[in-house]
Amino acid sequence: MTRKYFALMLTAAVVLVTATMNAGGWAVVTVDDLPSRVEAGKPLALTFTVRQHGVTPTPGLKPMVDAVSGGARVTASAAAAQKDGQYAATITLPSAGKWVVTINSGFVDSKLTLLPLTAIAPGTQAPPLSPADQGQHLFVAKGCVTCHENNVGSPNVSTRVGPQLIPRKYQDDYVARILANPSATLPPRADGLRMPDLNLKQGEIAALVAFINGPAPVTAAR
Questions:
Q1: What domains are there in the chain, each with its CATH number?
Q2: Across the chain, where does the E strand assignment appear?
């Protein structure tokens, strides 16, 4: 195989992948506020946004929220919330323990499975999480896991449209600036894709930086 032929084949492959992604077949689910405490038997409100290609808020969908723990399963429908592409659902986890919550966006087969949430019994205290552990949960809940190649330890499949995030690939302050204001920090991309501004709080940014640039947390429990 000549170098010229190989270069043509590689270019064709890149064009095909980009065209497939831009055809409208995927979206990113972002949880607006990941709950820090989940109590068994009490309603849990989840508000999230669905963005086509991670950028464009997408209204008119019929998302579903599904929670599984062992043989137990509960589901809830989500309704349109205040903003375009934003939805809200309320789900009650009936028993204490680890629950796997999946948000099915209703956009083709795009979905987001959160790292296990621990529902605690009424009157008990949830064990505190380190900043890196919090960041690991946020990395999934905010949809970062959908765009970036990663080893976060979740069943979500990455589209790999964003760069691989490994410890110390980027300095802490640079990662923080990207998370706080991506459009002002990152250069435009030729394919038109861009990182959205998720309106992250300072505490969320600090936790995400701690996870991205720190050693991998030992567990993925919450």
A1: 27-212 (2.60.40.1930)
A2: 27-31, 38-39, 43-52, 56-57, 64-69, 72-77, 79-80, 86-92, 97-104, 111-113, 117-120
